[in-house]
Amino acid sequence: MKCAVSTGCVVNVSISHLISISICKTFMVFLLSTFKMTAYAVMENYKHGLFSVFFLLYLITLVLNVLLISVIHQNKQLHQPMNVFTCMLSLNEIYGSSALLPAVMAVLVSKTHDVTVKWCMAQAYFLHTYASGEFCILALMGYDRYIAICSPLHYYSIMSYSKTCKLIAFTGLYPFIVFTSFYSLTLQLRFCGKVMPKLYCVNMELVKNSCRNAQYISTVGLAILVLFIVPLLVMIVFSYTHILRVCRTFPKESQANAFRTCVPHLLSLLNYTIASLFEVIQTRFNMSHVAVEAQIFLSLYFIIIPPIANPVLYGLGTQTVRGCIMKLFIKNKVMTTVLAKTLTVDLLPFHTL
């Protein structure tokens, strides 16, 4: 009898122990299913004002890029390869901004500043493919400028409709295929850390939070990055080397026209290079000695400045596009004036009664 009681007690204790372990494991999984975005802590006292700033920046990004796409779409004279690539760039800007700013605003006003692991991994994918796509499109635009300036008489035969479609498909798919093949390594990780020291999620920080040493992912990532960037960089350098060589044979007026044609693209490349350097420095090096405010600016530059600057550069910096935008505003202004006069005339009898 005593033995039976004792056995029952042991069984009960064992069951209780197993239940306790199960509850603890479930609780730990729950805890580690989110990341704490620690960079938001310094913004707590200004979160409502910053929410308005980020909302305004997102709105400006959408308006500028949608306006540029609409103007190019509505004017048949702008249906040229360079302007089609410009539309691709604007679509990519909208894609990147939409992956970041709405999430930043949501986390900013939340009480815990936590994000789920799944969303964090998705956001990292969106932002990395945005950055890869941006460089791919800029390289393609450099090649287009090379053909336009160095072989102007054969431009439309070289940049035919068929070839343009193939280049668009390649530029759209290539960065996604390359990054997805690499990112599959990160998707297999389990995370024991739960701190994300940035305003958004990136692959390097996910790897740092891994339960095991995942240094190989960082090494593979660096190798793929080099293999991805070098061919595109060679294309850009090749294009502008030949452009400079050919421009030397042009008269001064033609040189000025060629320079004006290349200015928006060169400024976009410079902006992208600065943003990339900021991101690489912040991700790869110890930034503990740098003020948090400066770190936030460096991390946001990459995703905020280019999406606003590029539509301005290609909208106002390109003469034909600028002319179409001005016509659109003048047309809308005239229509508004006519509508106002019509309403005034219609309402006049009521005022005279």
TrEMBL record:
Keyword Cell membrane: yes
InterPro entries linked to this entry: GPCR1_Superfamily_Member (IPR052921), GPCR_Rhodpsn (IPR000276), GPCR_Rhodpsn_7TM (IPR017452), Olfact_rcpt (IPR000725)
Record SUPFAM superfamilies: Family A G protein-coupled receptor-like
Major site of localization recorded for this protein: membrane
Transmembrane region(s): 49-72, 84-110, 122-143, 164-185, 216-238, 258-278, 298-317
Gene Ontology molecular function: any one: G protein-coupled receptor activity
PROSITE patterns: G_PROTEIN_RECEP_F1_1, G_PROTEIN_RECEP_F1_2
Domain G-protein coupled receptors family 1 profile: 64-314
Domain of life assignment: Eukaryota
Membrane topology annotation: Multi-pass membrane protein
One protein family per Pfam: 7tm_4
Cellular component per GO, a single term: plasma membrane
Keywords: Cell membrane, Disulfide bond, G-protein coupled receptor, Glycoprotein, Membrane, Olfaction, Receptor, Sensory transduction, Transducer, Transmembrane, Transmembrane helix
Location of this chain's protein in the cell: Cell membrane
Family: Belongs to the G-protein coupled receptor 1 family.
PANTHER family recorded: G_PROTEIN_RECEP_F1_2 DOMAIN-CONTAINING PROTEIN (PTHR26451), OLFACTORY RECEPTOR (PTHR26451:SF885)
Protein name: Olfactory receptor
Organism: Maylandia zebra
